[in-house]
């Protein structure tokens, strides 16, 4: 028998995350960079919670809700990525032997140009999240024990992708591993007793997620740089990017082993 929303802890958690993320824009204010970041995190948290319904909710319904949240996050990606890229370019440029030319910097900004969010976007976001919550699944079959099984399933998926990423060195696998690592972290946080401090596993998942996020930012900038005409400036920046990626991956691999254990890692 379906639970009422007030009796479903996962729904209550989802609503809490949505309310917190929408608070800065609920009065019609256009979302700034921090608000956009929080909205995207909210999408990830809700997608992670949806995974815990998998054993006893319709696959089609969960997939549909996941796609809705993915579209919300995708609509916000341009503004957030531009802000992150600006900071990353400044960091990398400061480590070059010669200053980055204004021409290259301008071209990089142009390739990532996106329309600034408006108050109309805030209205659309509020409506989109309301639609997700309105169709949120509720099931009397769900218990804490079932949810812990779901967390274990998510953790195993993250570990599987970590091994594949480490052993193949494919950037796309690192990115997929980041998604499932974040899911595992958010599910763990949901099931953890909030009265207690974060446990060791939560801290490791959080550190791993941060490093995988750094790698994804580097990969995004590298992809944009590769679309520009070759020049001495771009070659120097590309070389520095590759060094940062290599260093970042080595740190990630150490975190892979600490988080998931050494078994299955050949790197």
UniProtKB/TrEMBL annotation:
Domain of life per record: Bacteria
InterPro entries named in the record: CHAD_dom, CHAD_dom_sf
Domain annotation CHAD: ranges: 3-265
Protein name: CHAD domain-containing protein
Biological source species: Halopseudomonas oceani
